[in-house]
Amino acid sequence: MNEKDCVLLQYLVEEQSLTKAAERLYITQPALTYRLHQLEKEFGVPIIVKHAKGAKLTPEGEYLAAYAKKSLDDLNKMKDYIINMRNEVKGTLRLGVASYFGLYKLPR
């Protein structure tokens, strides 16, 4: 399971619909279903159950989605930490201020 699979599971939890999750991922619904089947084969358990109003995660799928969320959070924290290890602040700061204040009161 990779980062894209984690994002896929998060969108599926949020949307409760294969079609809407596929739209958010910018992929087709059959491609999403195929990837879910691959995950089911990998773990050997069903992840979703389809019904008339969309798709619902099985208990195993819910656990996997919770693990995926934790993994994504940890990955983002690690990326932020590595970027900020040198204690240098980098990036662009954009302020929405009145033109007078921006021209005469703020430093260049």
Summarize the structure in words.
- This protein has a two-stranded antiparallel ribbon with strand order 1-2.
- It has helices at 3-15, 18-25, 29-43, 59-83, 99-104, and strands at 48-51, 54-57.
- Helices cover 62% and strands 7% of the residues.
- 14% of the residues are buried.
- It is mainly alpha-helical.
- The model has no long low-confidence stretch (mean pLDDT 88).
Quantity of strands, as a count: 2
Main sheet: strands, sense, barrel: 2 strands, antiparallel
Strand content: 5-15%
Mean pLDDT: 88
Q: Please provide the ordered H/E string of secondary-structure elements.
A: HHHEEHH
Output the number of helix runs.
Answer: 5
What spatial order of strands do you see in the largest sheet? 1-2
> Could you estimate the helical fraction of the residues in percent?
55-70%
Report the uncertain regions: none
Which descriptor suits the 3D outline? elongated
What structural class do you assign from the helix and strand content?
mainly alpha
Measure the end-to-end span: 47 Å
Whole-number radius of gyration? 21 Å
